[in-house]
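S1.2 Input.
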Amino acid sequence: ELKKFKDQNNICIKAIDKWIAFLKKAENWVEDGKIPQEIHADEFINKAFTHLQEINLSKSEQEKYDAFIKNSRDEQGRIDYAKKEGKKEGIAIGEKKGIAIGEKKGKKEGIKEGIEKTQLITIKTMIQEGFNHKLIAKILNISQDKIKELLANEK
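S1.3 Output.
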C-alpha cells in the first residue's frame, strides 16, 4: 500500500499522509538526522522520529544518551525539590511575619481597650462622686464626646 502513496511535491496535508510519508522515508530521515518541517510539526510523528533515532544509536551513543537522560531527570528532580522546599520556607516566613504583625496589632488593641476600660471605671467613679462631664473631660484630658462614647459602649 505504501507504494501507492505519491508524495506530490513533498507536501503532506492530511495526518494519514504525514504518517505514510514518515513510514516510507523515516530510514532516510534518521540517516540525515532531520525530518521535514511539515512533518516535524506533528507532535506524535516527532515523538516517533525521536524514538526511532534512539533505537538506531550505537551502544556507546546509547550509553551516553541514557546518561544524559538520567542527568536531566536528576537535575529536574533537584529543581522540583528546591522549589518545594523554597515554597515551604516562604510559607513559614510568611506565617511568622503574619503572626508577629497579628501579635503587635493585638497588643496595640489590647492596650487601647485597657486604657478605655480604665477611663470608663474612672469616669463612672467620678460621676458617682458628683463630677460633671465637662470637668471629667478636663481632668482625664479627653473630649466630652469620648466620655459619652465610652458610657454608651459599656451597655
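S1.4 Remarks. The chain has a mean pLDDT of 85.
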